[in-house]
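Retro notes
What went well: the complex prediction finally ran end to end.
Inputs used:
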Amino acid sequence: MIQFVFSRLFQSMAVIVIMSYAIYGLMGLMPGDPIDLMITSDPNMTTEGAARLRTLYGLDRPITERYLHWLEGAVTGDFGYSRLFSRPVFEVIWPALGNTAILLGSSFVIALGIALPLGILAAIKPYSKLDYSINLFVFAGISVPPFWLALLLITLFSVIFGILPAGGTADAAGASGLWERAKYLVLPIASLTLASIGGHARYMRASMIETLRHEFIRTARAKGLSQTQVITRHALRNALIPVTTVIALDFGYLFSGALVTETIFAYPGMGKLIFDAIMGNDYNLALVSLLFATLLTLLGNFMADVAYTWLDPRLGFAKGDA
Amino acid sequence: MTTRKDHPTSLVWHRFSQHRLAIASGFLLIWMGLLAGGAPLWKSLLVLDGQTVDLFMRFQPASSLHPLGTDELGRDFLARLLDGGRVSLLVGITAALFASLIGTVVGLISGYFGGRLDALMMRFTDGIISLPLLPLLIVLAAIDLSKLGVPVALINAENASLFRISIIVALAGWTTVARLVRAETLALRERDYVRASRAQGATSWRIMRVHILPNLAASIIVATTLSTGNIILLESVLSFLGLGIQPPIASWGNLLTNAQELIWEAPQLAFYPGALIFLTVIAFNFLGDGLRDALDPKTIHSQG
């Protein structure tokens, strides 16, 4: 187990280092550079002054050298300053990370809570009316543009009924109290949840149908177990194994969904932060928040791998491990 | 289950026709293609003009002059939708074909040669799949191409954003096809006829081209159809965020960019473009599903 965890951690570290170099390189290709931005904000800046600043900040150095310099700082916890917020990058990212964790965590749990039972229901009687309806819903879920779904929800609940806010946070609106705070979360969570139910339910159905074909299910039926017992005791755990891997690969996708949702609802999470940083030429912030997003997805994948081995003891790292 | 021993083609057609939603989707897509592809014709027939700005005619309701009303600049909305559809479908299908080409090449090489190369390429593919793609695509869409040495004239060309978005979206969309093609190639390369061919001294290139690729056709068609839907979705998201197809060229995605600010004044403007994206994507998904059922002999069929 420990060996497995360490090798996975090592791999993730490698991915992060490669990604940081790639993203650093991409940031260098963004329009303008920090000095250009200083020139536009300071009309007295001369060409010589700009050149001197470029040397001072090391912008005339080759990209690898600049990257190593950045990495040196990053390792010691110095991620630089955010230009948009005029604060250390880390201070900006920390609260956004928490907000995104709330958004992604709740919609992930709710989506699974709805999708898995739906997939199982559809699998119990394949090609029935119920399966057919669930299938329609699933296809709608995977085909709906997430931003349009969000716009529809806003139109319905904010414009027509006027019962939920169209975006923002309770803090920004000066509201307090649990319900007032929760109100701002309902629509973002709902739109993110609805967009991911389809995919999950589809995997669950396919995997459950596959599992129910096995001999041990026939044996369980033959010894007189009820349908519910067969499903929950014998089939579910086996059927969940492939589902966890696919869902794990969806973490990146989920994060992409969060970017769209947060941007539309002006929700101050990582997705909106990344979008604003890229749009506002805030290179430091964009770089670090993108890396954090990558880290988050890798962490998700890692946890799914652990869940995978827990579900399927045959894979057990037990052999020869501590 | 029918037990007709017809020609394979009619067998496939028979199975496909069992999937009613796929048939309906096929027709819907043909309709969409005709409407969007013939946009200039329909516009001239209906005397619609999606270009002229008329600020006195903003947010007009539907009328005989403007069948779907006008947008925030007084442009005819139906004309904008037709033009947008042409661009969205064109970009979506181009990008999907391009993505499927990349995926086929990667999957074929990976599956055929196997070993270390295969392990490396599949690690890379899995890595791409697990990344938070949208933020990275946004960076790609935002970079300054002149810093890469692309001529300025090319960057500022009117249709540049179309090519750019097609390439960017394709870079994200090839993984599905690659994994599928690889899995099939792994099985195909062990077949007797492939071994026989190798024994006769055929080169790897010839074996891949003559013996393996044709057998992959069905899977590639299915995977491409299924990923077209996703790619159209991705394009619309990027255009919606203002990073894909740039105005004044209309696309279903960028027609929604302003819709959010206008949602209190003109909620109908937010409805149609999204509904069209939704219908197109769901139709591609159903079509792909139907094709898979029809082309894959392993699929177990039960009617009812």
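What we learned: Chain B touches chain A through 46 residues (CB under 8 Å).
What to try next: split runs per interface for comparison.
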